[in-house]
Amino acid sequence: MAESVVGDIPTYAGVTKEHKFKLEDFGTRYIQSLLNPINPTLGTKIRTAWLEYEEGKTAEARFIRDMDKLECMIQAYEYERKTFGEKDLEEFQGLSSKISSATGKAWLDLLQQERQAHFSKRKRRNLVVFFIGAPGIGKKTQCALLCQRFGFQHISLDDVLHERSDDPTYPHAEFVRDCLEEKVDVPRELTISLLERKINEGVEEGKKWSLVHGFPECIQDLFEFEEKVDLTHRVGRPGSEAGDELDIAKRIQDFQVRNAEVKNHLKAAEGYFKEINGDGNVEEVHGEVTQAVEEFIQHVEGRA
Hints:
The protein is an alpha/beta fold and 304 residues long.
């Protein structure tokens, strides 16, 4: 609580331990002073608890000190995940030697296992082409042609969901089936876990690249997928408006609204997005899509 008054004082700030204690001591005294007119007992309890924590003489204080260090390590790990492995905050792992309680050590072990698995997964970056576009423009046809040409694994989200809904061994089969029948979106967490499983199956079969269509539908889908699956994403996007029926026009309009943020997010990273005009016959569009995918592959190989 003292940090709410004096701010966070990191170790690299060059402030001695004694002076840091003094600053935070005055911070808690100020909080106590603010509370005195309305609840002096609470103010005294807060200051006493802070002194107990700082001295670390009781079992409770030592446990809280352990949790404070563990929380710092967890925050560092969360930042590593949010930057998709580009940040390696190994220096925070030095706090592990200062955790002494049995519970703290057990949780620390779980954290270190998860962090190690995270960086191990980052080294096996999944190579994924998201093939997204407005309804009725032949996405499935183009995906089939690309997979035949490049040997990619083709993953249709709709096919994956129907496959799992008919699988009696899958624990959420009935729930997924009901979602499909009632035209209710399957929860994003469940959808992503199924896509990740399918991608990994392809990797185990020797298919380094996966071509996914039917996902993502919005920027939240993409953000959560990036965080949980840790992929290198590539997007091909045919953009033709096909059909004159009112329902198709409405679906195209909805798609354009939802997809705008996805498009802008991916365009911000050079080499990660290609936009293709879907007008033309199958062969003409396929030629443009093929060129885009070839550029994706060259981009990845150039970064390897």
